[in-house]
Structure formats: C-alpha cells, structure tokens
Specification:
- The chain contains 11 helices and 10 strands.
- It has 293 residues and is an alpha/beta fold.
- The strands form 3 sheets. A 4-stranded parallel beta sheet has the order 3-2-1-10.
- Helix 1 runs parallel beside helix 10 and helix 8 runs parallel beside helix 10.
- The longest helix is centred in the middle third of the chain and has 17 residues.
- Bound molecules: zinc ion (ZN).
C-alpha cells in the first residue's frame, strides 16, 4: 500500500478517464410536467442517434470510456448497450429511473440500483461494479448510499462532486478510498478547477462546454502533474445537433442548453490532446488514501 496522500510514481504520468452518463435528453432530475417519468415513453428518443455520434468520436480518437447507463435506457435499447460493449467500452450503472439518491432514500435507492443492474445484465453486461448517481447526488444528504453500493457488489462510485451546488467543496479532488461500514469503495471525483475565486466544473457540464480546449487541456495537465487523473463526463444529448427545446428552470436550462454549438469539435480537440485509459488502468497507482472528514 502506498503512503497516505502520496500517489505512486511507478505508473508514470497519470492517464485520464472519460465517462458518459448514458441517458435521454429528457432525463432531468427534479422536474415534473412534460418531462415527468410517466411521460418518458411518449417523448421522442434521441439516445441512439446521439450516442452513435459519441461512439464515432471516441473511435476516431481511440479513447476508451466508461458509460454509466440509465437502466430505463438499457431496457429499451439493448442493441445500443451491445454496440457500446462491442466498441470496447465499460458499462456501469446510472440508476434505473434517473432519480437523485437523496430523493429516493435508502430503501428505494437500493431497489432502483438493483433494477438498474438487472436491466444491464439483461442487456448483456456481465458484471456491473461502477456507479454514478444522477446529478452527483451522493453527498452529505445521502452518504448512506456508499455502504449500500458496497453491499450490492459495487467497487467504484463516481457520484461525489467537489463542488458547492451539487456536492461539497471539501470533497477530495483525487481518486480515493472511502471506508464504509460495509467495506471499502473507490471514489472517482470529476475534474473541477479554481477560476475567478470560484470552483467550476471543468470536466463536465457547462464548464467543459464553456471553456476553450486549450484551457481544459491546461487544467488536465496541471492535475496530471500533481499525480491526479482528470475525469471528464459528457451526456449524449450534449452532442445533439438539434436538441428538443423544453422550458426548464433557469439553472437547468443553463446546464442543458448553454453553448452546445461546436461542442463536438471542442471535445474532439481535448480528447486527442491528452492521454486517456480505461478507468481501471488509469486508476492504477493513482488512488489516494485521503483522510475523510
Ligand atoms: Zn444523469
């Protein structure tokens, strides 16, 4: 075991991690109305078309990804899951019904998790061991989710964002081990950056779409110099050339529609400029034993 807080140098320069939250454009947490779960089957599906765009892009740059798939999507698009696996990518769970962990509570969270695993197994995924909660919703309101994940056979969680609105600024920015009552779990945080006295989501969402590829690459390289693999995350709907427009509360509207134009090209430039590896390979020698509050 390496010393606490000191990354192993044996693995050389860290390689980075690319992840995808595989969901439909209408999988938006906490909104009712037209996008309420009861209406999902009546809304136009875009996930096959937009994921194909993403798979082509990843194939072009030779980047392996971990797709955190919504079980509801896997159930309706098993062929898409097969295509993702045939392309050599890993598949984990993004829950079954795309609900926030703290909205579900422990029992419903476990049931939703099991339903997602069942849907993924039915779609041909052998062993589901990686999880990301919708909207980074494992935080101080839902730390009970971590031992449940261990009990259900998961070894990796990527749900805790070191960011104020959806997570906590105090959360570590490097991959680390979380010790729970049920055993250990590797926690894989998404890339953030300090800008203008604030912490912003440099590796995902509006922060990744807003920033120039050069700036994103610089932040990734700085993380790598500190021994930290950067974790990037996108959604297929961010690569939609004609996304369905719906009325959303301001914060969600920004998160969903801000600067989609040209994102595919900016992402392409980032992906071909820094080294990526499968999540398991990128984590070798990069997991820290951080003291957790
Ligand atoms: Zn999601």
């Amino acid at each position: 075991m390496e010393s606490p807080g000191v990354p192993s140098r044996a693995a050389g320069q860290p390689r980075n991690v690319f992840t995808v939250d595989l969901e439909e454009w209408f999988h938006v947490c906490g909104v009712g109305g037209a996008l309420a779960p009861g209406n999902w089957d009546r809304l136009p599906s875009r996930v096959e078309r937009t994921t194909r765009v993403l798979l082509d892009l990843l194939s072009d740059v030779g980047v392996p990804a971990t797709f955190f798939a919504v079980g509801w999507v896997a159930e309706r698009h098993p062929g898409l899951i097969a295509r993702i696996r045939d392309a050599g990518h890993d598949v984990g769970s993004h829950g079954y019904a795309h609900q926030r962990a703290y909205d579900l509570g422990p029992d419903a969270f476990r049931a939703d998790l099991r339903a997602s695993v069942k849907a993924l197994e039915t779609a041909g995924v052998d062993r589901v061991s990686a999880f990301r909660a919708p909207e980074w919703s494992v935080n101080e309101r839902s730390l009970w989710a971590l031992p449940i994940l261990v009990e259900e056979g998961f070894t990796l969680d990527a749900s805790m964002a070191p960011l104020r609105i959806v997570g906590d600024l105090a959360y570590p920015r490097a991959p680390h081990v979380r010790v729970t009552a049920a055993g250990q779990l590797v926690e894989l945080p998404p890339l953030v950056a300090d800008r203008f006295g604030q912490v912003m989501p440099m590796g995902w969402g509006w922060g990744l779409r807003m920033s120039s590829p050069r700036r994103v690459i610089r932040v990734i390289e700085a993380a790598n110099r500190s021994g930290i693999p950067a974790v990037l995350t996108v959604h297929p709907w961010e690569l939609d050339d004609d996304p369905p427009r719906v009325r959303l509360p301001l914060r969600l509207h920004f998160a969903h529609y801000f600067r989609l134009a040209g994102f595919r090209e900016r992402l392409h430039e980032v992906l071909r400029s820094v080294p990526f590896a499968r999540t398991s390979a990128a984590l070798q020698g990069a997991i820290r034993l951080e003291p957790i509050r």
